């Protein structure tokens, strides 16, 4: 939680726990329409979207959503000249509570959508993490969903280490081998 807000994370990963390739590009092998439909409908209900400077959810409703964009380019928090509903936020200079207050979000869920360092930063705060896995995709040398993920540590290890527990796995696209497991605190 952050104040009265639930914090929920959303990621689609390869079988080896990656969200993008070594160049920071999200490959087609982990893009999926069923996952996008799930993500977009969840974000429609969220009060605030949080992501790093190189990520966003895209889609026709993105501009209408309130968001915090992490960057070291500002010392604390500042308006984003190119996105009226967004604030640029450096968590080293301003707490999440203050950033959310400045955004004018009094209630509702905070949706964290990546990338790697941002997913990692919020590990102690998630009330739920929605982990979609593309069983047929492998991205050797890619960017992991959490900074600690690697040959010895899976995304599931990290979620469990931070006190989250898996609920039932759903096959959201059987033909493509896409599953969704929501981890709850
Ligand atoms: N599969 C998925 O679910 C998923 C989810 C998210 C993203 N992606 C993909 O992953 C790729 C981008 O990943 P990424 O991890 O490189 O991107 P990212 O987190 O979106 O952006 C990285 C930037 O965010 C800022 N940042 C991150 N942590 C910060 C902190 N603690 N304090 C201040 N600023 C911070 C920094 O910006 P400055 O350089 O401005 O300081 C950093 O360079 C894209 O291809 C994207 O599509 C995939």
Task: Walk me through this protein's architecture.
With 185 residues, this protein is α/β, with parallel strands linked by helices. The chain is built from four helices and eleven strands. The strands form two sheets. It has a nine-stranded mixed beta sheet with strand order 5-6-4-3-7-1-8-11-10, with helices on both faces. A two-stranded antiparallel ribbon has the order 2-9. The model has no long low-confidence stretch (mean pLDDT 96). Bound molecules: NADP nicotinamide-adenine-dinucleotide phosphate. Residues 11-12, 19-20, 24-26, 30, 51-55, 70-73, 90-91, 113-118, 121, 143 line the site of NADP nicotinamide-adenine-dinucleotide phosphate (NAP). Residues 11-12, 19-20, 24-26, 30, 51-55, 70-73, 90-91, 113-118, 121, 143 line the site of NADP nicotinamide-adenine-dinucleotide phosphate.
Give a quick rundown of the structure.
By secondary structure, the protein is an alpha/beta fold. Helix content is 18%, strand content 32%.
């Amino acid at each position: 939680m952050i104040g009265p807000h639930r914090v929920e994370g959303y990621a689609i990963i390869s079988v080896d726990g990656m969200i993008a390739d070594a160049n920071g590009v999200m490959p087609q092998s982990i893009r999926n329409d069923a996952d996008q439909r799930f993500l977009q409908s969840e974000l429609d209900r969220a009060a605030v979207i949080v992501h790093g400077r190189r990520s966003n959810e895209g889609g026709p409703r993105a501009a209408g959503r309130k968001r915090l964009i992490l960057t070291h380019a500002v010392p604390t928090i500042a308006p984003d000249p190119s996105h009226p509903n967004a604030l640029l936020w450096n968590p080293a200079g301003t707490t999440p509570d203050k950033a959310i207050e400045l955004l004018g979000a009094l209630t509702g869920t905070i949706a964290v959508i990546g990338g790697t360092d941002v997913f990692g930063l919020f590990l102690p705060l998630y009330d739920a993490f929605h982990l979609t896995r593309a069983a047929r995709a492998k991205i050797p040398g890619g960017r992991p969903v959490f900074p600690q993920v690697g040959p010895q540590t899976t995304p599931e290890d990290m979620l469990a280490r931070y006190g989250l527990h898996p609920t039932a796995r759903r096959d959201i696209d059987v033909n493509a081998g896409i599953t969704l497991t929501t981890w709850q605190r």
